[in-house]
Amino acid sequence: MPRSWDADLQTIFKAYTRRDKLDVYLADGSTLKVSRGGITGYDNWIRSVSDLTSTLDRSVDRVSFELQNVNSEVGFKLASDVRLLDYALATYAKQYQSLRNPSLVQDITFFRGVLADAEADETHVRMDMVVDYECTGAILASRGMGALCWWVYQNGIECTSTSGFDRCPRTREACAARGVEHEFGGWEFFDITSNTPPGGGIGGGYCFTLDTQVWLPSGDVPIGDLPLGEYSEPVKCVSFDPITGEICLDDEITQCWEHDAKGYFTFDFEDGRSFGVTPEHNIWIGFNRYRPADQWQLGYEARIHADGWERSKLVRIRWHSDEPAKVRNITTRRNHTYFANRIAVSNAKTPDIGGEI
Question: Could you count the other beta carbons within 10 Å of the beta carbon of residue 62?
Answer without folding.
Answer: 16
